[in-house]
Structures are given as structure tokens and as C-alpha cells.
Amino acid sequence: MNIKVRRISLAFVGVILAALLVSMPSMALEMRSGDEVVIDSSEVIDDDLYVGANIITVNGTIKGDLVAAGATITINGVVEGDLLASGQHIVISGDIGDDARVAAAAITLKSSGAIGDDLVAAGYSLETEPGSEIDGSLLFTGGQALLAGSVQENVEVRAGSVALNGQVGGDADIDVGGGATFNYMAFMPGMPPLPEVPGGLTVEGAEVDGQLRYSSPGEVELPDNIDAEYVHPDTTAVPGPSLVDRGLNVVRQFVSLLLVGLIMTFLTTGFTNAIVGKFHSRMWQSLVVGLIALFGAFAVLLIFLLMILLLLVVLTQLTLGALAAIAGIVSLVILAAAILVLLIISFWISRVVIAVWLGRLIFSRISPKLAESRIWPLVLGLVIIVLLMAIPILGFVVSFVIALAGLGAVALWGLQEHDRRLVASTKELG
């Protein structure tokens, strides 16, 4: 792996951990939190500012650094130090005096925005509007990038779609995919409108003072005024699994799912039947709820991770090192447990539930007696599902749909149980 790819691949980790760089002792700091935090245009903060809120708006002046975590972060004023921010949407239309290290689904540097040194960013979409200025270098990794502003030094980007329309004072190293990227972020609640960037690399009206080096599946037609070098991607073919290996993999999947299914059908019979019945009665709703739950879970996990980092920074600044270590360990255990539960539901419980439902559906038409069995509907359904998942491309689609269906059915069951217990508790109190 070359130096460029290593640097860009590690960018996201660097952005997420960037907040830890400010854990060195400082002279002073100020902390604010709440659902919405607004720094008025007349307000001047002489210290570093740490903010955790759903909506963060900076219209005033911050003499030090700004460390922010929230859903929407808007910088209209001045941050004379560094900006370290993470959230769903970050908008910079003011001035950042030094570096900006940000991670978000959508990142926008408005035409009036300026960054005094480097911009290091990670996320789905990055847009620098015409008139925006980055006085240092730009490093981005993510889904798509629309670069229409000016960058005084170098640009390094790794994304599926990149449009270079602005000015670059140094070299530009760009690594892109081959086709149009799927805007999966459009399904996330609260997402702003995102720019449409064609798949691959497009260059229109750009000026690159140095050399443009780009890697893509094929060469791109570029303006004559740009000194460009095409770097062919490493396409060394990796031998695929043999037919025997594929067959053994199918058998392993079947056996493992069968063991999980037998445990569910015999030890958690009521739960399994409830989930199967919920999917049978509300099939399409299960798919929709599963899709919402999947993206919602990722959003919640990301916000939780960002809040962990912010908490660690605050505790470290307050010289509560032992408490910070305990809080970090407990938070990471909770985060790992939540991810594990999501994976178990998506890759194990969902497949067992859909297999039982499918087996019962088939047997109800050919042998109603077998449809009532605990074992045979599970076996028949797993055989069909495992064979479908072994088919290239189709297998991925089947696995994804099953995960959504099972996740949605579990979510609907959970909501029903919550409402039932709430009604029962209300009656007891009454």
C-alpha cells in the first residue's frame, strides 16, 4: 500500500481521534451543553470552547479552539484556533484561524468560509463552494466530494465520486471509484440536500498549479491546462474460492444457522413464534421499519461514540484521569454490546425467523401437519435461504432484505411489548 493510500485510509480514524489531541493541559476552557447552543454575534469567548448539543450555532468569536459534537454544527462567526467537530451536518461559513478536523455525514464549506490552515475531513459528502478558501492542504476520505473553492497547498482525496472545479495551489492526488455512488444518506432523518456528483472523477474549470495524479478504473478526459498523471489501480486478480470451498461454506452456514434455529425454536419458542407472526402479519411494514432501524442504529452508535470522545476530553481537561479511564472502558463495553446485539439480530435471528416463516408457508400448502412441526419448517426454510445466499450478487440482496425484515419484525415486537407493559403498569398504578 503506497503512502497516499495509507494517509487517506487513516484519515477517518485521525478525525475521530483528533479531539484527543487537545487532552494536554490548557490554561482555560469553557463548556456548554443542551439541546441547542447559540453563540451570539456580539459574544466573545476568550478560552477554548467545548460544546455538546443537538444544534450548535457559532455567530460570535472564539479566541481559542472549538471542540463540538452535535447533529447540526454551523460556524458563521470566527474561531481563531482549531476546529474539532463531529456530527450529522457541519457548515462553515465563517473563519477558522487554524486547522479544521471534522467528521460528519455532510460537510459544507460555504462561499464565505475560510480555513487558515489544513482541512482534514471524513464523511459521506464534502462540498467546498466557489469563493471558499483553504490556506493549507485538504485531506478527505468518504463517499463524494465537490471541490469548487480554492486550496492553497495540496489536495488528497479518496472517494467514490469527485468533481474538481476549483483552484489548487499545489499537487492534487485523487483516488476515485468507477461508478456513481448510491446516496444511502438520503434515508437518514434530518439530512440536508446534498450535491449531485457524477461517478468517478470530473474536472471542469479547475486550475492545478502542481500536478494532478489520479487513480481510477479508466483514464479521464481532462483539460489541456492541467499536468496530469494517470495511475492505474492495482487490479491483481485474487483467485476465488473453488467449487468445493463454496459447497463447504454453504454446509457450514446451514449447520450454524440450524443450531441457532433449534435453540430459538425449543428454548425461546414464544419469542420466535411472536417474531414470525409479527413478520407474517406486517410483512411490508417490517421491511420499512427494518430500514429505518438499521440507519437509525448506525446514527445512534455514531453519536454515542462522539459523546464518549467528548466526555473523555472534558474529564481529561479536568485532570480526572482515573474517572476518564473508567468512563471510557464502560462506554466502550456498552458500545460493543450494542453492536453485537445488532449483528446477532441482523445475521442470525433474522435468518432463522424468515426461514421458519418460509418453511411454514410452503408446508401449509403441501402438508399442513409438517407446518406445525418445530423442526421441518426451519430446515426447509434454511435450505432455501442458504442456497439463495450462495448465488453471487443475488445472495447479497437476499441477505440484506432478510436482515431488514427480521430487524423490522423484532423492532415491531419490541414496540408492542413496550406498549403492553406500559398499559399493564398504568392499570396497576390505577
Quick take:
With 430 residues, the protein is α/β, with parallel strands linked by helices.
Can you characterise this structure?
The structure is a single chain. This protein is of the alpha/beta class and 430 residues long. It folds into two domains: 3-231, no CATH class; 243-429, no CATH class. It contains nine helices and 22 strands. The strands form two sheets. Strands 1, 3, 5, 7, 9, 11, 13, 15, 16, 18, 19, 21 and 22 form a 13-stranded parallel beta sheet that branches. Strands 2-4-6-8-10-12-14-17-20 form a nine-stranded parallel beta sheet, with no helix packed on it. The longest helix is centred in the C-terminal third of the chain and has 46 residues, at 321-366. The chain is globular. The model is unreliable at 1-28 (pLDDT under 50).
Task: Give the DSSP E fraction (strand runs of 2 or more residues).
Answer: 25-35%
What's the β-strand tally? 22
The main β sheet shows up as: 13 strands, parallel
Residue windows where pLDDT falls under 50 for at least 5 positions? 1-28
Helix content: 40-55%
What is the average per-residue confidence, as pLDDT, rounded to a whole number? 82
The number of distinct helices, counting runs of at least 4 residues, comes to 9
Secondary-structure-based class equals: alpha/beta
Structurally, how many domains make up the residues? 2
Q: How far apart are the first and last residues' alpha carbons, in Å? A: 67 Å
- What coarse outline follows from CA principal-axis ratios? globular
